[in-house]
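Researcher: I'd like a structural prediction for the single chain below. Treat it as a standalone chain; there are no partners to consider.
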Amino acid sequence: MKKKAIIIGSGISGLSISHLLAKEYDVQVLERSAKIGGLIKCDRIDGNLFHRVGGHVFNSKNPEVTEWFWEHFDKEKEFLLALRNAKILFSGQLIGYPIENFLYQLPPHLVKDIVKELLAISKAGYKTPDAYGDFQSFLIGNFGETLFRLYFGPYNTKIWNTDISKVPLEWLEGKLPMPNIDDVIISNIVKLEETEMVHARFYYPVRDGSQFIVNRLAENLNIATSCNVESIKYKSGKVSVNNDQDADVLVYCGDVRMLSSIIETDNSELSDALNQVSKLPSNGTSNVLCETDDNDISWLYLPEEKFKAHRIIYTGNFSSSNNEGSNRKTCVVEFSGKHSEEDMLKELALLPGNLKALAFNYEPNSYIIQQKDTRSKIEVLKNLLAANHIYLLGRFAEWEYYNMDKCIESAMALSKTLI
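Model: Treating it as a single chain, here is the predicted structure.
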């Protein structure tokens, strides 16, 4: 007989690990919500597709991840290859992204200050990320005070809604901008377009966005929705859930902070480790599905403090099927934290595109915030739980800022441990 695995959570992490374990385990997926998908779920609003938390696309530099992903989909028939065309709204003008490659589009007096600072950084010599104690110091040290003041400081403070001088660099490993001053100068001279850069292209489903991805991955899996996990305990070599389901292994893809009130244990070391992560900070996001004027932009970043929103994701440009309920394109305006519908409507009037709100959504937890000791706390907890055949996986379980491809990558690594 196959061993049994219980997976808690049906987001991209839970569905990926379920598939990866299915040949060796009898897999049961438990989902608290009535609908699968986690942070990447989508809904149709009068025909228009609403990415309720951001706008999720597929792209990966990891060939193992891409090979596994395309085993489940027809790349040519079910996906569109889209070009990333991101912009930054600055003083009413659209500036290319990333900003350091489009300095020539900024006012001359700012360009003079920025180039002077970049040359000084180049002359002083490149420093590795470990030479900086925090995210803010890294940004200033690599881009200079002017670019930090204009863009990197206000944008990152807005999106993370936290003091970035207290953010450790490890949190953003693999996501940090790593400028090469020579490349920056050359890009501004030859005016290199973003379409020629790494990650300039991404894949997006022809229909239903990231909901299509989770729906496909959910096929042939045993998933129980509207299932609230209230109790987890380890006894007699098995993991028991809600005192009525036993498994050989349990993979938890939910919010790690909730485990202190769910796991029943007499192990004081484990209890302490659970309590240590029970108050980790996170941000929620408020999102508005809107109609917008026609454009060819994919993402528009809003660093200026006069805007409460931090970006607009033009999901209507990813696939025409996203706009089936409107004569106009659609987009999602994203705010960090909770905002009233009244305040968001006022904000829409300030933003470009003659935006018309179609639907609102608030997700209380979407961005994790790491502090200097977060990773060590999670690592201690992981080891203690693994001794009880309980494993953490995903953005809020591992407390890592994973996108879709990183969730799959982490699931692949865990599957090798369990098989």
